[in-house]
Design a protein that fits this description.
The chain is 40% helix and 16% strand. It has 346 residues and is an alpha/beta fold. The strands form four sheets. Strands 5-13-6-7-10-8 form a six-stranded mixed β-sheet, with helices on both faces. Strands 1-3-4 form a three-stranded antiparallel β-sheet, with no helix packed on it. A three-stranded mixed β-sheet has the order 9-11-12. Strand 6 (86-90), helix 4 and strand 7 (116-120) form a beta-alpha-beta unit. The longest helix is centred in the middle third of the chain and has 25 residues, at 193-217. Bound molecules: adenosine-5'-diphosphate (ADP) and aspartyl phosphate. It is an enzyme of class 2 (transferase). Keywords: Amino-acid biosynthesis, ATP-binding, Kinase, Nucleotide-binding, Threonine biosynthesis, Transferase.
């Protein structure tokens, strides 16, 4: 069952010191609700000196059935000071290049008191490019090598790997399989919802591998996870699958189990799951990485799920169009809904 977030208003105060960050709520809990298990207490803007900006969603950690199922592991961790403490989600804009990934790594390390689970989306516009590549393969193109979008995706990921000083072999298999898949789609001249989900999954599978390898390269122990391999079980509704209940305990068992036996920062693919009946890769709908983050937070019974953006909250317009765009200090639900209706990206 998918987790729903009901947004009633977000306050984004101008400056907020990092030391106060964890203890303050910026709007009353009842203004924002986060399914029946949790309450959303605030949305904040992180000051420039902490080298990042973010929308932080704070949830109440309450005992739920998932925690009961994983009690033995949680009990082991209860007294530990270094247990997994929050989820940090970074979207495509935040990991769009090697430099952006370096900033994300720096940001994560600037919170040494946290042991976060990291959820990443695909780099930049990779998902859109992959969908376009699939559509081209299914229509006019006879060989994947003719598809510009495939070149774009290869180039983007190779450049990131090179600039981060990593070995290209970490994504070689994925790029080869991606090309093979596009050739298969081209041979069949058919892009089904199922093959489309498999196709776009390459984006998150590669971004997380690159980022985990980079953290390991700079001496921070990290472990990459494909969500469809760690218990993200979904309906078989390709392109827009719902998370099934069993996911929470499966994911908690896997992440806690690994953390207890060999602690390493988990780097999890957003957006992806595995269909219950088909066992095929599914996706959770566009923008679905946020749902991955909240699912992990709920499964692990964590107090915080942080959704980081590369902007200072909602601005007066897209900063890519007008560099003088300024943060909007307060948004009502109606205003947010209107912005979304007219296609605001953020
Ligand atoms: N009014 C706006 N305020 C802030 N950012 C905006 C706005 N309109 C467009 N953007 C763009 O949205 C991007 C964030 O997009 P979003 O899809 O929310 O992020 P993510 O890739 O993290 O999921 C920003 O990098 C910014 O360029
Ligand atoms: N990459 C997927 C999932 C996602 O959540 O992306 P983002 O966090 O960049 O919106 C998409 O583009 O839909």
């Amino acid at each position: 069952m998918a987790t729903a977030t009901h947004l009633c208003g977000i306050k984004t105060p101008i400056y907020f010191s990092k030391s106060n960050r964890l203890s303050q709520s910026l709007c009353s809990p009842e203004r924002l609700s986060f399914d029946s298990l949790t309450e959303l207490c605030g949305a904040i803007r992180i000051p420039a000196q902490s080298r990042g900006r973010g929308l932080k969603v704070v949830c109440d950690a309450r005992k739920n059935e998932v925690l009961v199922q994983t009690e033995s592991k949680i009990q082991v961790l209860e007294g530990a000071t270094n247990k997994l403490s929050c989820v940090m989600k970074f979207g495509g804009s935040s990991v769009a290049s090697a430099d952006r990934m370096k900033e994300v790594a720096e940001l994560i390390l600037s919170f040494p008191e946290e042991n976060p689970v990291i959820v990443l989306s695909a780099m930049g516009k990779t998902t859109n490019k992959l969908i376009l590549a699939g559509e081209k393969a299914a229509s006019c193109v006879s060989d994947a090598s003719e598809i510009d979008e495939l070149d774009f995706v290869k180039e983007l990921h190779h450049r990131a790997v090179d600039e981060l000083g990593l070995d290209r072999s970490i994504i070689t298999d994925h790029l080869e399989n991606l090309e093979r898949l596009l050739n298969g789609i081209s041979a069949l001249k058919e892009l089904t919802p199922r093959s489309r989900d498999y196709l776009v999954s390459f984006g998150e599978c590669m971004s997380t591998r690159i980022f985990a390898a980079y953290l390991n390269e700079i001496g921070v122990k990290a472990r990459q996870y494909d969500a469809f391999d760690i218990g993200f079980i979904t309906t078989d509704d390709f392109n827009n699958a719902d998370i099934l209940e069993e996911t929470y305990s499966a994911v908690a068992n896997r992440l806690y189990g690994d953390w207890i036996s060999d602690p390493a920062i988990p780097i999890v693919t957003g957006f992806l799951g595995k269909g219950l009946r088909t066992c095929a890769v599914t996706t959770l709908g566009r923008g679905g990485s946020d749902l991955t983050a909240t699912t992990i937070g709920k499964g692990l019974g964590l107090r915080e799920i942080q959704v980081w953006k590369d902007v200072d909250g909602v601005l007066t317009c897209d900063p890519n169009i007008y560099t003088g765009a300024e943060p909007v200090p307060y948004l009502t639900f109606d205003e947010a809904a209107e912005l979304a209706y007219f296609g605001a990206q953020v």
